[in-house]
Amino acid sequence: MSTVADTRQxxxxxxxxxxxxxxxxxxxxxxxxxxxPALIFTIVITQIPFLVxxxxxxxxxxxxxxxxxxxxxxxxxxxxxxxxxxxxxxxDGRLRSAVFNTVTLTVGTVGLSLLLGLxxxxxxxxxxxxxxxxxxxxxxxxxxxxxxxxLLWKHAIYNPSYGLINGVLNWVWQLFGADQGPTxxxxxxxxxxxxxxxxxxxxxxFMMLILLAGLQAQPxxxxxxxxxxxxxxxxxxxxxxxxxxxxxxxxxTLLGAIYIVQHxxxxxxxxxxxxxxxxxxxxxEIYLTTFRKFEYGEAAAAGVVTVIGTMIxxxxxxxxxxxxxxxxxxR
Amino acid sequence: xSTSTLEKRGTFLNRxxxxxxxxxxxxxxGGPVWTIVAWVATLLFFxxxxxxxxxxxxxxxxxxxxxxxxxSGITFExxxxxxxxxxxxxxxxxxxxSIVSTLLVxxxxxxxxxxxxxxxxxxxxxxxxxxxxxxxxPAIAALLPIYLLVKRVGMLDNIxxxxxxxxxxxxxxxxxxxxxxxxxxxxxxxxxxxVDGAGVLRSLWSIVVPMATPGIAATSLICFIFSWNEFxxxxxxxxxxxxxxxxxxxxxxxxxxxxxxxxxxxxxxVSLPVLIxxxxxxDKLVRGLSLGAVK
Lengths: 331, 295
What we know:
The complex is a heterodimer.
Chain A lengths: L1 H12 L2 H7 L2 H8 L3 H21 L2 E2 L8 E2 L5 E2 L1 E2 L3 H8 L1 H33 L5 H13 L2 H12 L6 H12 L10 H4 L1 H26 L3 H9 L4 H29 L3 H7 L10 H10 L4 H35 L1
Antiparallel strand pairs in A: 1-4, 2-3
Chain B lengths: L2 H18 L6 H4 L1 H25 L3 H4 L13 H8 L2 H31 L6 H12 L4 H13 L6 H24 L4 H9 L4 H12 L1 H17 L2 H6 L7 H8 L7 H21 L1 H8 L6
């Protein structure tokens, strides 16, 4: 890490030789040139669609009954309605329940996977036979294609007649002499926990990896000193490890939250948002509004609301990333 | 951790810090009990993956028994059936979209990272955080305008649309990762090259790229993983010709008859490239997932 620090500090200090040449406009542009393709590409592909979404959100645009006003050659909308779509978003019961489901899904998944991830990270922080293999196996759930994982949980694990959970329950029951174990239809009876559990399984390795990196970045000498002074493991964890882990916990929480707020694969594949709208989160509701109801204006307004929600979480995330980033630089 | 303590301890300790951890300070206390707990937890987490692979190797009849059978006859017929059902073109589309977009990401991100670390532009941290902030915008909110535009120019069901979108999706991650890898290239070498008259392109190509090869490999694998797994754009912007493997999976489910073993075979097959890429990149995985913030 020291090389990083050296390089960066020198660069920030801008050595005199460089500053002399660095002031002319031409050499500044030469310096910028390698950056521009990536920057322009990113601005064009990511920022412009959001501006267009913002504009569409002010239109009544029903693609099933299009009006006669043309929108940038992309299609015909009905009329300009100002903020009416936002009124719909905040008063429509479906959208409100989608907001509620998004929060439940995100908080449930991030909370549980963070706890499990912390437990696994602590277990893997000690050396034991086969630790490398255990780590590799634990990463696997995160690497399974999200759609594949969702279908795996729905059909191979939750299915009431041949899924793994009911199969194991049945086997245990038969072991104790019963004819037939309980048959639980998880997806129909407990749709939200079913989706959350599948997502927790996928995201726990992510949390574990970040927290394990945090645990392993702990300065050893402080831990040793504490142990020499007779501090118990619990006390060391509470007063040294946990404060040290704080920013890693924050980072894992925020990154996880940002990914899961946007998540659609599991909802799409396990429950299709149902039963009813019990598991419809905002992204899936926007998807339905766009491609099933064809209400483009409403979908755009819901999209803008999602962006604002994500940006609130992201502001905190950026703060944490930037503090870690500056720390790396400061080393 | 306090930055000042680390600074005081200097380079050598900092370097050693990571390697010397885990040598069993906390370790030996709990002893074998914690080892057993760790392994039980690991195997519980891995069980669904193992179950998926095992089921994919069973016949449909064996796969649907209740209670489940662990070891019945092993067969590869399910994988054969996948290719009969035409999984091939989907895999090729996925490979095309992920590999080409990853190459584009590298072509854009390496020069950008150069201008953000080795010869940084003014306010380079602001540029870094701009890239990062684009990653936080939910894709679903961009889908409608992108869909309308793609439809307007007649490029629905065209793999190049996915290539461009995946490039944009992964570029911020790649810029962050490459920036942190390029910052580790010793500056003296670059200065020596510049004294010898090497220009930006020359020093980028003959010095920076070879020295940052492990970083480039890790970045590529991360970008490959994300594009291979992408679902939202793939399912909405492609139809028959250029659909990728997740779209195949969703379309594969039929309600008729036994299909569990085939589904597991399909899930295993489409996940295999990413599993291999992820295991190969596992040391760098955390750096990519945390956008370079955690090393």
